[in-house]
Amino acid sequence: MAHTRISCPIDRSREGTYRATGTGSGLIEGFFRWPLVFRFIKGAIHGAIIVPVLFHALFTAFVVYLDLYIFDTVGLPSSIIPSLSIVVGLMLVFRNQTSYNRFWDGRSSLTTLTTCIRNLVRTILTNGYSTSRPLRQDEKEDIERTIRILMAIPYAVKNHLRAEYGAAFYSFGDDVGEDGVAAYNPDYANLLPKGLEGHEDEGLTLPFQLSFFIDGFIKRGVERGWYHAPGASQMQAQLNSLLDAVGKMEMIRLTPIPVAHLIHQKQVLALFGCVLPFGMVDDLGWWTVPIVSLVIFTLYGIEGIGSQLEDPFGYDRNDIKMDAIVGDSKMEIDVVLSEWRKLMSFVEAETPRTESRCVEDHSDRDIEK
Question: What does the pLDDT look like over 33-50, one tens digit per residue?
């Protein structure tokens, strides 16, 4: 059987999510990418290092001018450059390695968070029922409320790591809607329990606050006979792993690289950039300016990358794409929850038929007897 291939223009509005644009140009924009060597704005570090590079270029030009037109020579032995280069190289390697480890650990912890949420959603929806009777309406609402709280946790973690305290509420719940209920951020619409009040101004983080709702649901599930002890223990372990991942991301966010190291690194880079022209000017003349500028561009670029990766939870282009990851997680669970509702509707529709058949079977047996 032949398959018809349908092409659809796409626009990558954010990493991990695609949507149709309906225009031919969107197809080109979606697939065409400038080679990395020609990128100077998006994702590049140039904007952050242009000032020190220009400063060192001007300083180098001043040194060359002094050497050629004012003094006989201002040059220093070129042998000093290798010894200083070793020190600068070691410091930059340490900085970049440390920063990338923080970036990788943050991404790994975020993956652990989403994985734990997936496991909890799967376990709740596949085991949250009793074979002896259909689910009551309040029980179905309890399950849906818990799933939506799980959907809200990644948003709460994202805002918490970005120090956007109270982002789930407008003015920490002081604003109320027409129904008298605290107004929520649109990202949290229909996710948080009605009437929930945030206490982040008192030191209680929203992710930790929401975890109590999940813990309470597990306890109710055991009492209803939905989960046996080992299953409930596994769910508790997933919840503990979730909070452990949040704690690791908090550690990355709240434990910066020691300021003494940052100060010394900046000073060593500046010192090296100022000494470098004196070691080259006698041999290169005016060529010293572009050569020094190239070296400084390379070194400050490496240092700038490490600076961006140090806190990977922000809005920089090189940070973890938290908005996309959190949005995709919500979309995924939304689909699962929608399918669960369809399944529950089907089960409820089939239950009366099954019961009537059982009654008919019993009646037939009584007649035969």
Answer: 777 777 777 778 888 889
Residue 249 has pLDDT above 90, yes or no: yes
How far, in Å, CA of 173 to CA of 264, rounded?
45
The residues with which 20 forms a beta bridge, in sequence order, are 10
- What separation in angstroms does the CA of 227 have from each of 27, 102, 232, 316, 336? 49, 38, 6, 43, 20
Contact 159, 167 (CB under 8 A): yes
User: Exposed (0-12), middle (13-18) or buried (19+): which is 278, by Cβ within 10 Å?
Assistant: buried
Please give the pLDDT value at position 363.
Answer: 45
DSSP string for 161-201 = HTT-TTTTBSGGGTSB-TTSSBPB-GGGTTTSPTT----GG
What's the token pair of residue 137? 């309406």
Question: Most distant CA pair in the chain: distance in Å?
Answer: 125
The pTM of the full predicted model, rounded to 2 decimals, is: 0.78
pLDDT digits (tens, 9 = 90+) for 280-331: 999 899 999 999 999 999 999 999 998 888 999 988 888 999 999 999 999 9
